[in-house]
Amino acid sequence: MARYGMVIDVEKCTGCYSCFLACKDEFCGNNYPGYAASQPAKGHYWMKVVPVERGTTPKVKLDYIPTPCQQCENAPCISGGAPGAVYRRPDGIVIIDPEKAKGDKGIVSSCPYRVIYWNEEENVAQKCNFCAHLLDKGWKEPRCVETCPTDALIFGDLDDPKSEIAKKLKKGNTETLHPEFATRPSVCYIGLPKKFIAGEVVFADKKDEAATGVKVTLVCGSKKMETATDHYGDFEFDGLDSNKEYKVRLEYAGYKTQEMQVKTLKDINLGEIVLAR
Ligand code: SF4
Ligand code: SF4
Fold first, then answer.
1. What is the C-alpha R_g of the chain?
2. Which CATH number is 20's domain given?
3. Neighbouring C-alpha atoms within 13 Å toward the C-beta of 253
4. What are the average pLDDT values for consecutive 10-residue runs of the chain, which has 277 residues?
5. Same-domain status, 65 and 164
6. Which ligand is nearest to the CA of 6?
7. What's the 70 CA to ligand 1 centre distance in angstroms?
8. How far is the CA of 9 from the centre of ligand 2 (A)?
9. How far is CA 156 from the centre of its chain?
């Protein structure tokens, strides 16, 4: 028996919404008895692509976080409904029974990830179920995974060491959304957006030229990262922890070294930094 999970690589997601549309194509107007009633065309986002904007102009980044049901091992939605209305299959998929859950609106608010939607017409709570009806017919992956053009979604058996998903997880660079919820999700992420520190360097005596190749060092406690300014004089450190003190040092032969202290309460654009001789 497989134990299904998904790894979502945020760095590969372009926000094309193909996964969302494939989900709509699979479930809108289609009833799958025992699995899910028909999904409404509007108001439901079983595969929700959440845009996340970071920074301020001119240093702005846009990421997309595809957010389906996290298929939690310790799923609060199961106790959120009447006995048997929401249950976890042996393969790890959490199902809202479209018959037994009828009329129980309280299930919607039981999910801390807010990925359960109320279907007024069918009088039932609904969410992603990894296309369980297809997997049970022999499909290897849900429709969203099949359709993703960038391979940002990886699906498979967490217990099969040869599966792509198990290999990804072994690398140790995955994390879950909101670990503080302690729900043990079967969906993990690579490259969730963190804080960044960026800036632009110019030489005081050559203001018309970009200060290329300036050594920039970032220090946080015993951790140290290094980079150099690019052809535009820009530098950037991404993937930084929130709420931490960092020291930024800029060095270039023949110019005075500059140091500044910053705290990543938010993304930081240091703006134009002028190096003088
Ligand atoms: S993400 Fe929400 S709906 Fe999905 S299993 Fe976890 S608690 Fe239940
Ligand atoms: S289909 Fe793939 S690339 Fe497109 S939004 Fe979904 S996860 Fe991102």
1. 24
2. 3.30.70.20
3. 1
4. 96 98 98 97 97 92 97 97 96 98 97 98 98 98 98 98 96 96 98 96 90 97 96 96 96 97 96 95
5. yes
6. 2
7. 6
8. 9
9. 18
